[in-house]
Every structure is written in C-alpha cells, then in structure tokens.
C-alpha cells in the first residue's frame, strides 16, 4: 500500500526528554495518520505513482505546536472590532488613540477597546476621566487581564447601572465615594451586563475574524489550540467557517461552568461533550475558582496590600467541589482557573478527593503564585499544570514596580509562574498563551519561557530568572504536554506511526538556536491530518 504523502526534511525532532542519536528525515502519511518514520527506506517502501512528495531541504519537522490555553473566538472578534490599547503606558496615550478612533466612527456609537493597562490610572481604574475628555460618549475598555472593564459614565447611563446589582459570584460594579458606579466593572457576571450592549457583529464577519486569526496562528507553527471557553457564538462561528472551508488548525473547546451554578447548568455543559466538526470538538469543562490578582479578585491565603485578593470567585466552595465530582463521575476532565495560592491549594484538594476522569487528567490553569509545599502535589496527584510564562515576562517587572507584584507583595511575587520548579518536581507543564490576554505567537512564548524576559526587549531585566527552562523543555510543553492534557498521547504530540499527521516545518531546528533566533525561526508549512498549509516565511505574527 502506498502513502498519500511523504515529507522529507533534514531532521525529524520529537523533543524527547532523553534523546538518543536519531537520523530520521522522512515521514509517510496515509489517510491523515503517520504510517512510517525513518530514512530513504521509507520512500522506497511507501512511495507510489499517486504519492505526493513534499521536500524541505535543511528544514526540521516537529510535532505540531499546540497552544494549551487560548480564547480564539471572543479574542478574534474583540481584536477584529475593538480598539487595540496594547503597549500604551499613560492615560494621555490612551486618550490619543480613542480620539483617533472617534474621528472615524459615527457620533453616538459605542467605542470598545481591549488590552488596557490599569497602571495608567494613578489612583486606581475609573471611567470618570473618560467623561471629562469625551463627554457623552459610551466607551468600554477591557483591561489587559480580560477580567474587568473600564467604562465611561455615558456607558453607565446607557446600560442603566446603579451599583445595586448583585451577582452569584464575586463579580462587582465598583462604587465611587459618592455611592455611584465609578466605571470599574469586575469579573465576568458584571462584565456581561456591559458586553450585552456591545454592537452586534454579524456571523459572517465574526467567522471571518476567527478564520483569519487561526490562519495567522498556523503561520507561527500552531496546528492546534485548547480553547478554554465555548460561549456563543463559538459553535456558530466554527460551523460557519467549515461551511465554506477549513479551520487552519484543530480546536479543543472546554465550556465554562459558571461560578455558583447548579446541576441544571452542569447537565447542560455535560450534554455539550462531543459536539464538533471536522477540526473542532468539545471536550472537558472549565472552572474559574478565583479571578485575577490585578483587580483584587484572586484567592490568596492572606489578603493583598489593599485588603483584597482574599476570596474565591465561587462563593460556595462546596458547590465547586460537588461540580468537579459531577463531571469526574461522568468521565469529563476539568480545567480550573486558579491564580492565588489558596485557590490552587483548594483545587488540588478537590482533585485529590475526586480522582481523575477516565478520558484525560484534570488541569489547573495559571498558577500565578504558589508556596513550596504545593509544588510536589502536581506530580503526586497527576494534575497537569497549565502555565503562561509570558504573563510573567510581559505583565510584571523584575523590580516589582507593577500592579500585580505591588498588590501581592515581594514574597509571593518571587514565587510567580514557577515553571522550572514545577518541572523539577516532576509535574507535567503545558504552556499556553491565554491569547488575546497574552502574546499569541508561540515562538515568542517559548523564547520568553527560556529567557524569563520578553524576547524582543533585550534590555529588560528577567523576572525570576531561576525559573528559566531549556528549549527542549519549552517545546515539549507545547507538543507532548498538551497531548497528555487532552488525553491524546497516543495520537498527538509526537512524530510516530499511529499518530495524527499534525506537524510543523521549521526552517531550522529550534534546539540548535538561541531563544532570540527561535522567535524568528520561519515556519515553512504546517500539516493538520496530513493536509498541507504552506506559509510565506516571516519573522513574527501580530
């Protein structure tokens, strides 16, 4: 029997933890699966008249990179329609960008933006300065952590917020000294009251934004991502893209189980399992046990300098325990957002009580600051640690003169994003970007993980340099580890017979390059199930 496709490169690299001498240069693919790996003998055994031969002289073939934590649908729509405030460090700079956008849109229309750095507000985030500069304009700006909004008084009035709104979880409409909403809206339930008033984006437009973003991700080496959400219009968007074409990569979706929800909601999420299309499917459930340290809604054992960051997002932690047990008993793996040390500890305790689902291990996501005693528990319990090291490098500073570090204090800040320590304690670490909260180019994320500073800012001091990891460890955390986290170790994450032909073709072997060189290592092609997508070499995606 002949192969459908044969790929020949200079080297096949699997990022094995203890590599031996390997000379593999050829991979044969049939019906989307790898059927042989080796040298010229693979060509002789598997090539036929109908076999496509794909050659990349000098290149390295690796398992396809998988971003273990991203939000592709709402992220692509937000980025495609909103105002990008990334990189702006002063309120005047924010004003200038808003003014430019207002000059382009109709009077009275909503202005929405994203990636707002809360550090631009000297006395804490509030929307009232927006009214002084842009009177009567409804403005809503999503903060960099995507867990809060800063909205103008005109937006407060248009929505009808009073400050008397109550929520099942720790969401909040923050009040000013006068007892009225000050424009700071914290956590998802409260944010939903604002987002519901955003201008509707037609489905074809939304699908276009998502499809384009997935193609950009593919051009940076991704063949898959784990979408830690499945809110509307996710299903409609994926189906619309596949109605006329293909997703550029595979997407594994885990719907959010809202904080303090009950069995009726849990049953609905359980019923979504297995929904899917050609390159996307629903598997697993996402929990948010706490919020974010930057806005005071994370759950630490001790409060921060403002007396905040001391409560769970689930007011009823016993309910969280029951929900994890519910999904585990139905064979559905969970991923718990846990940023503060007490949130991580509680999630580990609950997983220890409940055990794992049969289909895949439970995961804990973010793990921004934890003490020493929690490190060995990940490996002991078989819990996957989902980390975003680029949050450390791009959202905090080595001198701790940033909001995150200031709020939680120097001792806890020094225990941030402990990638090296978790690996040394035997944990499986799956690296993600949290895009659009973080940088989406996996090459930059992987380089940052090795440098503990932004790869594109060589003069920046590293954040906790002792947490650096090697190139081999970093790339394994975006290939082998996500496969394990998805319960797909026999199908994804390695180049071996029986595995899916999800592959990345790099111009050069990342293991032979410095982190700086890795970040601009051209991706020549990606393969998803043996289907080839060639890419024009470029240094970095937006």
TrEMBL record:
Domain of life assignment: Bacteria
Name of the protein in question: Amidohydrolase family protein
Family matches, as SUPFAM superfamilies: Composite domain of metallo-dependent hydrolases, Metallo-dependent hydrolases
PANTHER family registered for this protein in UniProt: IMIDAZOLONEPROPIONASE, PROTEIN LONG AFTER FAR-RED 3
Ranges for domain Amidohydrolase: 58-532
Pfam families: Amidohydro_3
Segments passing through the bilayer: none
């Amino acid at each position: 029997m002949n192969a459908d496709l044969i790929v020949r490169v200079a080297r096949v690299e699997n990022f094995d933890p203890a590599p031996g001498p390997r000379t593999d240069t050829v991979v044969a693919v049939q019906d989307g699966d790898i059927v042989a790996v080796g040298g010229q003998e693979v060509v002789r055994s598997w090539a036929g008249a109908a076999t496509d031969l794909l050659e990349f002289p000098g290149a390295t073939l690796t398992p396809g990179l998988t971003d273990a934590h991203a939000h592709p649908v709402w992220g692509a729509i937000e980025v495609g329609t909103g105002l990008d405030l990334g990189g702006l460090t002063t309120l005047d700079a924010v004003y200038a960008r808003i003014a430019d956008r207002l000059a382009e849109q109709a009077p009275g229309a909503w202005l929405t933006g994203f990636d707002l750095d809360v550090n631009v507000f000297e006395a804490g985030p509030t929307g009232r300065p927006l009214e002084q500069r842009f009177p009567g304009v409804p403005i809503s700006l999503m903060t960099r952590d995507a867990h809060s909004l800063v909205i103008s008084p005109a937006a407060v009035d248009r929505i009808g917020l009073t400050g008397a709104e109550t929520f099942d979880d720790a969401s909040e409409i923050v009040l000013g000294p006068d007892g009225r909403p000050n424009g700071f809206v914290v956590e998802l339930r409260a944010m939903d009251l604002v987002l519901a008033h955003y201008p509707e984006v037609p489905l074809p437009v939304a699908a276009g934004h998502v499809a384009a973003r997935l193609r950009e991700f593919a051009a940076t080496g991704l063949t898959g991502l784990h979408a830690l959400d499945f809110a509307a219009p996710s299903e409609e968007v994926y189906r619309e893209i596949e109605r006329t074409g293909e997703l550029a990569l595979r997407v594994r979706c885990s719907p959010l189980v809202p904080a303090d929800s009950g069995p009726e909601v849990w049953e609905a999420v359980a019923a979504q399992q297995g929904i899917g299309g050609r390159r996307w499917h629903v598997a697993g459930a996402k929990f948010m046990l706490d919020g974010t340290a930057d806005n005071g809604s994370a759950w630490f054992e001790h409060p921060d300098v403002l007396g905040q960051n001391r409560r769970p997002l689930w007011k009823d932690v016993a309910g969280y325990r029951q929900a994890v047990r519910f999904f585990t008993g139905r064979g559905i793996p969970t991923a718990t957002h846990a940023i503060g040390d007490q949130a991580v500890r509680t999630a580990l305790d609950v997983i220890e009580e409940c055990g794992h689902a049969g289909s895949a291990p439970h995961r804990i996501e973010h793990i921004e600051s934890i003490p020493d005693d929690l490190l060995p528990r990940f490996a002991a319990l078989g819990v996957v640690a989902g980390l975003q090291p680029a949050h450390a490098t791009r959202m905090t500073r080595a001198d701790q003169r940033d909001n995150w570090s200031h709020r939680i204090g120097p001792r806890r800040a020094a225990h941030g994003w402990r990638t090296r320590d978790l690996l040394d304690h035997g944990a499986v670490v799956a690296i993600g970007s949290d895009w659009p909260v973080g940088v989406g180019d996996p090459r930059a994320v992987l380089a940052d993980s090795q440098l503990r500073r932004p790869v594109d800012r060589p003069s920046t001091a590293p954040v906790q340099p002792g947490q650096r990891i090697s190139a081999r460890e970093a790339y394994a955390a975006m290939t082998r580890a996500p496969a394990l986290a998805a319960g797909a170790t026999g199908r994804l994450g390695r180049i071996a017979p029986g595995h899916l032909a999800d592959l990345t073709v790099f111009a050069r072997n990342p293991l032979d390059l410095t982190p700086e060189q890795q970040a601009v290592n051209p991706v020549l092609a990606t393969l998803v199930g043996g289907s080839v997508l060639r890419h024009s070499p470029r240094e970095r995606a937006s």
